[in-house]
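Dear colleagues,

As part of the handover before I leave the project, I'm documenting each prediction I ran so the next person doesn't have to rerun anything. This entry is a single chain, and its sequence is reproduced below.
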Amino acid sequence: MDDDTITDVAVEPMPENNDTSRGYQERFARAVPDEVIGKSLDDAEVGIVAGASGCSDGFNNAVARIREEAATSD
């Protein structure tokens, strides 16, 4: 991040999932950078991305934890 602006994001699919789930996760991982790079940490939240409806919940939960950690380190 640069001045609370997201400059990079990495999403790693869970390899132990079945092929269908892994496919959604891989498409989500490729698409999510376009959704959040350039946004502030406060504005980073995604909905359904690349047809992956469940992936957004995990991503948004992770961003919420990052916000909490950033707030406590200020």
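Residues 19-73 form one domain. The two ends are 15 Å apart (CA to CA).

All the best with the project,
I.
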